[in-house]
Amino acid sequence: MSAVLDVTPRKQLSVLIVQLGEIEEVFRSLMAVKAVKQLYPETKFQFVVRHSHDVPLRRLDWIDGIIEIPVIEANEDPLKKVAGWVNQVIDQSFDILCNWTYSKRHQRMSSILATLIPAAVKFGNHVRNDFTEGGFDAWSIYREAWLRDQTIDQDIHHTDIITTQLLTALQVHSGDPTDDSSSSNVTSRYFFKTDNKVQFPKTASKWIAVHPDSLNARYEEVIEMILRRHPDHGVVVLNETALGDDSGIPVDHPRVLNLSGKLDFDSLVTALTGSAWLIAGRAPIVDLANLLNVRILYWIEAHPRITGEALGKWTETGPYGNGNIAVRFAEDFQPEVFYAIWSYAQSEWFHKGTMNLATHFENIGVTGLAAAIEVYKSRIRSAQEGGGVSFEPVIESDTTFENWMFRLRGQVARSWFCGWIPPMDSEVEKLKLNPALIKRSREIRESLHIIEQVCTEGKEVSKGLHQVALQIRNPKIMPVEDREAIDSYGKKLIELEGLISRVVQVEKELRCFLVWYQQLMHNLNGETLDQMANETYQAFDLLSDGIVLVGAYVERVLQKAKPKAITLSENVSPLEEK
Amino acid sequence: MVADIRLLQGKIIEDLDQNPKNFTKLMEELALEIVEDQQDSPPAERSNS
After folding, report:
1. What are the chain B neighbours of A112 within 8 Å (beta carbons)?
2. Would the CB atoms of A4 and B12 count as touching at under 8 Å?
3. Which residue of A has its CA nearest to B21?
4. I need a labelling partner for A322 at 20 to 30 A (CA). Which of A265, A298, A352, B39 fits?
5. Are residues A149 and A33 in the same domain?
6. Closest Cα in chain B to A420
């Protein structure tokens, strides 16, 4: 077998996706693979998944192979069984391996597997020679740096990250994508080939799916309002655990279809595809509904009860696609408000955006919109805007500095990994300037300048270290002065990291840059000191570029905020004449 | 500036026939991980939603 460079001329590559995470991660991976498959239809995709997560994959004819983690019976020798299984897997040849597992619980298992299975090119986490874990590539390091950290929010959805990673991989190793592939949609009600297992009663013309397990206890009141105010609507209850008479749901209502506790994958898909909306909180059913193009009313819970990806930020794992609505209450869940937001969104076809949410609340006699709530609508951005899903506020408010940094971090990543960002002026134009934002922009300028200077020095130091390291023929025997020089460069690098650390202690919004630098240092791949010094130089260079980009945005904002002199002309009427 | 190509192209494995270092130990650890995962998972793990 030979390395990837020998196979690059042929377009038909085989890709193995290692996805040992929770089922929602499998759904997200399918979204990414389907999008990539449209651009690279010749590519063959196989998945490695944990036992029982194979079911959705078996309902897709465009997946070329499914490998399941073996089940070890009580009387079996685990090592023997696993060794036999691994031998079978490594017998196959893959061009590209992507370890997309994100769930912390299954990260180690997936990293080991990504290390053991041979592939010409590898992406994602793996186990290094010292048994620690590291990332093979930029997007994997990015996930560990900015997604894993709960204090750093950024606007690139998890699905977009893995999609872009794979697209970049194919572009580098296989060539540009096919042009005539934009005709069909990624998501569809026919995404999975399943048997129709659910018969909807004729009592309603439109069905709304509800997933109580992921919702606040007062979801029953939302159901009650839908049934009372919309006589043509029915509610289908989709829950893993069975809900009976004591659940508060009117299970005997002619327009309620209670499927709780009776769902296998096929019936769940059928029930969802027969529904116009899904009302749910964070749960795998949301990711499944995304694939099926079902609109979602999503409750953003501060402390989700559903485990798995619970630690992921909602902005990175929330409902994907166009037209989904996400709602967050500052305090208690308010069923009436939640219902009213849904009724506004579901009547969009009627008001066509001519009526705002506040007017709708007035019209239907619901109060409470003024209470602190956030409402977002999802939209797939055009390629000119940076692509991917974004969650745009439905209730307009001033842009805070952190909200702006949330968007800027994504722009920095696009600049780093795609070499492109949307036009800066149009981005700044969208901001709702306010005194707090302008004040914070002014304050942060100096810190940006300090970090930029530290990066310049860091590049100098790593260049010096690289030069010394190049002269060393045998790392075990070296002149005393070389060892002292290396020591000194090393100490200087630690000092510089300390300096950045001190700056970001004050400027919390810039902490992302320190975390990024630290992740890059953790993932140095070089085997010799000169290679590592070179990578350190690149790390400072990348960091510096990110800082300069944020600085450029800040300057644009301050420029826009400057008072502009106006020229009085004869057309201006004096005040007293009004 | 876009990141160095080495960060974007993934890790290129030069010799696919050569097992990774620590192959046996990794295999042992994998077996352990699989057993632990099986013990942690409920008998009928949710596979649909």
Report:
1. 26, 29-30, 33
2. yes
3. A129
4. A265
5. yes
6. B2
Interface membership of A389 toward B (CB under 8 Å):
no
- Establish if A195 belongs to a structural domain: no
B6 contact residues in A (CB cutoff 8 A):
525
CA dihedral A331, A333, A339, A341 (to 10 degrees): 30
Q: Do both A217 and A260 map to the same domain? A: yes
Q: Do A55 and B12 touch (CB under 8 A)?
A: no
What's the order of all strands across the beta sheet hosting A295-299?
A256-258, A233-237, A206-210, A277-280, A295-299, A325-329, A373-380, A389-393
CB pairs under 8 A between A and B: 155
Which of A72, A113, A120 is facing B16, going by the closest CB pair? A120
Q: Is residue A272 domain-shared with residue A163, that is, in the same domain?
A: no
Beta carbons within 8 Å of B17's beta carbon, 6+ residues apart? A1, A118
Alpha helices in A199-264 (DSSP H): 219-229
Q: How many CA atoms lie within 13 A of A207 on its CB side?
A: 25
CATH number at residue A285: 3.40.50.720
Contact map slice: B 16-35 vs A, CB within 8 A: 16-17, 20-23, 25-35
The ipTM (two decimal places) reads 0.89
Please give the residue range of the domain that contains residue A534: 435-561
pLDDT of residue A443: 95
SS3 A376: strand
Q: Can you tell me which residue has the tokens 């309620």? A: A256
The 10s digit of each residue's pLDDT in A563-578 is 777 766 666 666 665 4
Whether residue A566 is contained in a domain is answered as no
pLDDT, one tens digit per residue, over A369-388 is 766 789 999 999 988 787 89
Residues A35 and A119 in one domain: yes
Residues A129 and A261 in one domain: no
Cβ–Cβ contact B39 with A under 8 A: no
Shared domain for A380 and A254, answered yes or no, is: yes
**Residue A417 belongs to a domain:** no
Q: What global pTM score does this model have?
A: 0.92
Task: Tell me: do A33 and A110 sit in the same domain.
Answer: yes
Spans in chain A with pLDDT lower than 70: 1-11, 179-184, 302-311, 370-371, 567-578
